[in-house]
Amino acid sequence: MNESEFLAAYDMSRYERPSVTADIAAFMMRSEQEDNYRKDADAHLSLLLIRRGGHPFKDCWALPGGFLQRGETLEECAMREIREETSVLPISLMPVGVFSAPNRDPRGWIISGAFACVISEQSVKPLFGDDAADAGWFDIDMHKTDDGRFELILQKDEIRLCAILTEKNSRFGRKEFISESSDFAFDHAQIIASSLSALQGCAESFEMIFGFLPEKFTLSALQSVWQAASGQAVQAANFRRKIAPFVEQTDEYESGAGHRPARLYKQKKG
Q1: C-beta of residue 68 within 8 angstroms of C-beta of residue 21
Q2: Is 0.70 surpassed by the pTM of this model?
Q3: Long-range contacts formed by 248-255: CB under 8 A, 24+ apart
Q4: Do you find a cis peptide bond into 56, omega within 30 degrees of 0?
Q5: 176-205 in b/e burial notation, b at 16+ Cβ within 10 A?
Q6: Are 232 and 207 in contact (CB under 8 A)?
Q7: 172 and 209 Cβ atoms separated by less than 8 Å
């Protein structure tokens, strides 16, 4: 039997196959303008969530995502879903991991490939599709508690969502989590925590940080974004030494400022 004959006789139905979805943790640095023009606007790391319009987990908040369609890759599926949810196509997606616990979805055997992306505040307007009743950007915080667990909190106006997680393991510089309690749909608390951990891990190398900013930016804006994503505070002089190899100055200055205009920079290529 040659390969063509083997493939013609091969019976795919002998093996049960799962459905496949892509879930996307879309982060944005949301700014709050200060009344004092001498002070930089505060920056808050935010995450896009949708409120599910149908079962399962009707009216619960979840990450945007959807089922893989025939003929597309998992990354193409994620790109399509985030474009439908935000009207913006990210520059790139970072794979976070595969979530395949047997009972993660009450509808059946469904595994998910999770991705993280960064979207600029200037270019996005949250939308919602057929399976969502609402969508919005939630400020996100995750911190370790005294007993060694992690508390994940997402807040938007009067809506406050919480989850308690434990760290399962850490492999290849990425953390995995188990959810003990959660206000989120499916296992999305675990996906959110893993995505946030991956984002923080990228902060030191600036791999994703520039995605929060427009093409040209001030160094103070870059520092504000980096501090929020990494969870670390740093003095301006030390930060400028740290990022010097990654940026180059332009001949342009910010406009509309109530103080001396700051020079604009851009990411150094190559």
Answers
A1: yes
A2: yes
A3: 250/216, 252/216, 254/218
A4: yes
A5: bbbbeebbbbbbbbbbbbbbbbbbbebbee
A6: no
A7: no
The alpha carbon torsion through 219, 87, 198, 174 (nearest 10 deg) reads -160
252: left (phi over 0), alpha (psi -120 to 50) or beta: beta
Contact 164, 180 (CB under 8 A): yes
DSSP E strands in 68-173: the ranges are: 94-99, 110-118, 132-144, 150-156, 159-171
Report which residue type is found at 241: R
What is the phi/psi pair of residue 117, to 5°? -145, 165
Please write the tens of the pLDDT for every residue from 204-225: 777 778 888 888 999 988 888 8
Q: Is the pLDDT of residue 266 over 60?
A: yes
